[in-house]
Every structure is written in C-alpha cells, then in structure tokens.
Amino acid sequence: MIAPIAVALTVGLLGWTYRALKPPPPKICGSPDGPPVTSPRIKLSDGRHLAYREAGVPREEAKYKIVVIHGFGSSKDLNLPASEELVEELRIYFLFFDRSGYGDSDPNPSRSVKSEAYDVQELADKLQIGSKFYVIGISMGAYPNSCFLILLNGRSYFGIGFSHFYRLAGASLVAPFVNYWWPCLPANLSNDAFSRLLAQDQWSFRVAHYTPWLFYWWMSQKWFPSLSILAGNMAIFSQSDLEILKKWSEAPSVGQEKIQQQGVYESLHRDIMVSYGKWEFDPMDLINPFPNNEGSVYIWQGYEDRIIPFQVNRYLSEKLPWIHYHEVPDAGHLLIFESKNCEAVLRELVQR
C-alpha cells in the first residue's frame, strides 16, 4: 500500500507544482474570451497589434513629434501635465501607446528589451509620423530607450542591421529604471543602491533575475510579501509623490482600468522579468548617438526618488558625459507628473 500512496502523493505534488508555476493564458483583446478592442491599433510585422493614442497638435501640423513610452503599471492613457499653451506654442504632437501586454496591445511571449524598442520604431513607421521624432521614456518605460540608443549607434550587438534608427532626434529618460546586475556598475554602488530597497522588493527582483520561471509563483504566493508597489506599500513614495497620488485619486485617469485586462502576468510580470533579466548589452556600450550635436539625450532624476536610487543614474551620467543629467532636488519618482517639471522636460528636449 505504501508504494501506490507514495506515487499518488508524488503525482499530486507535481500537478500542484505545475499549476502553481504556470501562468494562466492571456485574455487577448478581441478574442472570444477577451476584452473588446476599444482603441485604434496598428498591426506589427509579427502579427501582434499595438494600441495607440494621439494628442497635442495634429500630426501634419506639428513641428515636433514625441513618442511617449509609459512606465510600469501605466498605459497610453497617462496624462502629461503640460499646458495647452505650451503644446500650441511649441507645436508638439504626442504619440502614446500601450506596451506589449498592457491595455489593448497584444501580449508578446518573446518580449525583450530589443523587441520593445522595435515596437516603437514600427509604430512610428506605420503611422508615418515623419523623418524625425523624439522619445520620452518614463521609469520602466526608459529601458526601450536604452536599446534605442544602442540601435541608433548602428553597432551589431544583436546580429542585425539598424539603418532605420537614424530617425531619432533626441531622447529623455525620466526617472529611468536601473538594473542592479548591469556589469558596468561597481559592486559597492549596486549593492548599496539595492540595499536601499525594501526587503520584499529585493527578493522579487532577485527571483526575476535568477529564476524568472518562478516569478509567477512568487508573485502569486501568500507566504512571503512580494512586490511592494502592488501590495499598496506607500513607504516607497516620497512626499511629493504622495501629493501627486492624492490628486490622481481625486480625479482618476480614463482608461486606467484597462491596464491589466489581458492578465497581470502579460503586463506587469513580464515587464519586471525583462527589466531585471539578463540584458543583451550593457549601458556602457552606449556611445554618443549625436556626435555632431544634431540631437541630445537627457536623464531627469528626482533626488527624493525612493524607487530608483539617484546614485546609480548620477554615476551613469558621469561615465557617459554626453548625457545631460538633471537631478531635481525636491522631486520623487513621479517628477514628470508635476507641470513645472513636465514642461521643463519638453522644452529642453525639443529646443536645445
């Protein structure tokens, strides 16, 4: 009797483990079991759809065209607090889009840093936004920007050509994400910055980096605390961030309820696994993409940011002096959602 019982227990344990580790299938927009498609979309070369939103002055009347890449847990429906007067004065056209798996954009099971950058390029091509455009990457939305700059360099890190990326006119990385396992970071700097994070976030990022196949289970289990931002831990926000969050709670943005509608794994979980996974290049591989000053690259970092330690982005900008670094003393992670900071980011990006 012992052997059959042992076999049954083993089979049951394996079945439970499989179910615990395997994320549920996505609820793809427009599929029979999925949410409806409610946004304009373009079809990419691999068959996926990318949802987008246009704002600012009409595309054909714009002097400057800016693609905005949203961050973690956000979408194309984010609102940049730039005044209508500024947008009209500078004649800015904005192109927002849902990154893979977010909102109305199809999930990408092969999602990577590289694929995110190529989505931006293909979106710009499909919508024919012109020969030159700018990119703003916010928080975790800045990692496609980093790849974009590598591609713009024309260096064959991925074994393919990048001739189309010359179209980038400038880039701003706002409160940009950092990967604590980048080889370029000195051990004392990365260890110190990592130790400033809450313990539950340290463990979540370790799992994403070392054992991504366990990440869905880690984010679903109830035994240990996982990612603080999803648990509603407000300790990760600065005072200025809390004030912005309070304003948002009083006037929620339209469309935010659609962020995770295709599945939390396809949107939030994949975002973290790609960000904290093993990259195909190192930030120190970047060379100045605008050697003749035909464009500029900026980092905007809040000194009070408790999500992205300023020490890391300050270090990177010191090692890459062609990046124009702005450290805002009284700002936190949500610095671009204060109107004065947002307008400063826009003015410097297009007018320098």
UniProtKB/TrEMBL annotation:
Residues 66-346 form the AB hydrolase-1 domain. Residues 1-20 form the signal peptide. Keywords: Signal. SUPFAM superfamilies: alpha/beta-Hydrolases. It comes from the Eukaryota. This is AB hydrolase-1 domain-containing protein. It comes from Gossypium laxum.
